[in-house]
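Hi L.,

You mentioned the student needs an example of a multi-chain input paired with its predicted structure. This one should do, with 550 residues in total across all chains.
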Amino acid sequence: MAFYKISAFSRLGQVSVKALRLYDQRGLLTPARVDPETSYRYYKVEQLHRLHRILALKAMGLSLEQIGQLLNDNLSPEQMQAMLKVKQAELKQQLVEGQRRLQTITAHLKHVKEEHTMPNYDVILKAVEPVSHVLSIRETIPAYTAVGTLLTELVDHLAQQQAQPQGPAASIWHDIEYKEQDVDAEAIIVVSNAVTGTDRIQIKTLPALEQVAAVIHRGPYSTLNQAYGAIIHWIEESGFQVTGPNREIYLQGGAEQDNVNYVTELQFPVAKVVA
Amino acid sequence: MAFYKISAFSRLGQVSVKALRLYDQRGLLTPARVDPETSYRYYKVEQLHRLHRILALKAMGLSLEQIGQLLNDNLSPEQMQAMLKVKQAELKQQLVEGQRRLQTITAHLKHVKEEHTMPNYDVILKAVEPVSHVLSIRETIPAYTAVGTLLTELVDHLAQQQAQPQGPAASIWHDIEYKEQDVDAEAIIVVSNAVTGTDRIQIKTLPALEQVAAVIHRGPYSTLNQAYGAIIHWIEESGFQVTGPNREIYLQGGAEQDNVNYVTELQFPVAKVVA
DNA sequence: TAAACACCCTGCCCTAAGGGCAGAGTCAAG
DNA sequence: CTTGACTCTGCCCTTAGGGCAGGGTGTTTA
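Structure written out for the whole complex:
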């Protein structure tokens, strides 16, 4: 019977006045009466029911627009189900995301506590696009460092064809476990479409990687093992698992062994361990 | 050595150009060189390291401003720790929130599947402020419905003092378990400061409730049990526990038993069950 | 050498759900 | 009739960029 003015109603419903005005504007909760002269909004107690429904849906994470659809466009039960299911999947996804955030920050915190500095290596997760038209040699070589000769071979091949590399050189290590010798290695250089291969030197496309853990290393190759240590540690600690050969990208590099300005990116394809 | 233009660098770092410009503007990642004539931004590979750190911190949920503090205002390890701890607590909180959302939506989804409608009662969680200056009678009464006589007693007392109620009437049920008879009940009416009490009728302040599950019932008191059923069910299903006496607020009510326009709010103080 | 094309710059408007404020009008009590 | 408490609309603000317009650059090709 009685009409409530907006602030009285907002107290009843524990919502801010500003929110009520917004819900009115978006068509979620129109006041029972609006004075045409003064534009004052007057609500009835019965509307608390609707307000509660709005708040309940909001507490599930639905947007005002979605709530409007549910409340106004009176959908079929199937449509409601579909909508809620989509949202449910979204929420599950967000939970996983949140757990990852928490794990990452906890690891960082631990590092700061123990070492009193931020970690030297920042591992990030990302996706890697496929890379088309790369020159590749794959071979079992006696030791990691020998990949240099494979790369020189590629560079020489390029020089013969008067072509330039189109991107940084890289190598791919196909052994999943760590090996000191007889390493299954692949040397890579991105080239333009015009370049041709040979029996030994193939033209191929590097597959995309859905999710990699990546780290940037600055300094000579002799200290790369620190970066490897950090990334492997991170992967284990974060509940991931290596799912394929890892890549080493020489963003800034060359033939010298000890250049402190070299920059290398390490990429390990990973997936969440299913517990 | 080589400088990269913004889009080349953005490809290296897997970040959008727009983001790089933003990071520049916010002082997170200033290009190695900016041409003073053209304002072109030129980056060096070494800066990937810093970019990775930014992305890593972002992946933990820190805001750009916080990242800026961590990177630029070189804080003491203690300050870093404090900052990360705050964020960690925030993330934990968000996780709990997310789990609640998910539970709620799952319950709704189940209801839609089984009944092909949205639930009739929308339970929401909220905080309740303390209510000062209320008139109260507490007594053991033979049955729920007898609370009406207590309320009439309060209303009569008000009338004697020529005063008006300042808000809706309510009752509080102090028995935590369900009882059919000999119920420990309290009748409540909010009044202005001027009103005085008696031996039997006390003036008191209702305590705040940190977290209540609340539901709005529309219809006669005889159907209130449906609302009770719904809210109790919700509380159990959502992993909460009733922690105190529940309140019944007669937002729109009166002495008749069967008025379909009555509106009543039920409030149960709750807390998350510690598993 | 000029045009074509790819790239870069700044600046403006947009997002979701309101919060804060200004200026003007309205309601209820004394 | 005045005062104080409310209410109205309208504008700007928040995050982390996305999208676009208009104008300037850099490199390559005819």
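You could point out the following to them. Chain A has three domains: 4-72, 76-116, 124-272. Residues 18 and 77 of chain A are 32 Å apart (CA to CA).

Best wishes,
N.
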